């Protein structure tokens, strides 16, 4: 698996704002993702997340899953949704989203290495080769606030 792009979008600049969102290639074999989303109206106590998975077939088409969960409830019992937990386990060790609601601080993912994503997508749950888009939409208080799109190729 190789990251090819990441796009972070804030739909409500008075509620959230991205300080940074990028991929960094250290060398040919080490690439990582970092992002920081500033919460401008903390604490946040009601969060839903939609995770959708797409594969490229003449454009990106839905592939396998499109799931929305109450994120605060999910954090109390991560095994309640296997699909969201699959993605959560990839990120949790590199982020500060490892606790239940409320969120009082900015959300960060720091130096998530491609090796972790590669292991999940090739060893834990093998996916077929191709180009993928993982789209996460974060909804606070029933208003769409943030969207993060991860693009990658599996070969």
From TrEMBL:
InterPro entries xref list: DUF1091 (IPR010512)
UniProt xrefs under Pfam families: DUF1091
Question: Cross-referenced PANTHER family, in alphabetical order?
Answer: DAEDALUS ON 3-RELATED (PTHR20898:SF0), DAEDALUS ON 3-RELATED-RELATED (PTHR20898)
Q: What is this protein called?
A: GD22829
The organism's taxonomy opens as:
Eukaryota, Metazoa, Ecdysozoa, Arthropoda, Hexapoda
From the UniProt record, report the name of the gene that encodes this protein. Dsim\GD22829
């Amino acid at each position: 698996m190789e990251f090819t792009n990441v796009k972070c979008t804030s739909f409500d600049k008075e509620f959230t704002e991205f300080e940074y969102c990028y991929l960094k290639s250290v060398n040919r074999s080490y690439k990582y993702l970092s992002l920081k989303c500033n919460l401008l109206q903390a604490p946040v106590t009601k969060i839903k997340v939609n995770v959708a998975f797409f594969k490229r077939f003449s454009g990106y088409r839905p592939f396998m899953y499109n799931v929305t969960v109450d994120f605060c409830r999910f954090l109390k019992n991560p095994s309640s949704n296997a699909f969201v937990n699959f993605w959560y386990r990839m990120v949790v060790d590199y982020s500060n989203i490892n606790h239940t609601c409320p969120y009082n601080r900015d959300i960060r993912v720091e130096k998530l290495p491609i090796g972790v994503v590669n292991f999940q997508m090739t060893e834990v749950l093998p996916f077929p080769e191709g180009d993928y888009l993982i789209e996460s939409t974060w909804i606070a208080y029933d208003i769409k606030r943030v969207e993060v799109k991860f693009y990658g190729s599996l070969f």
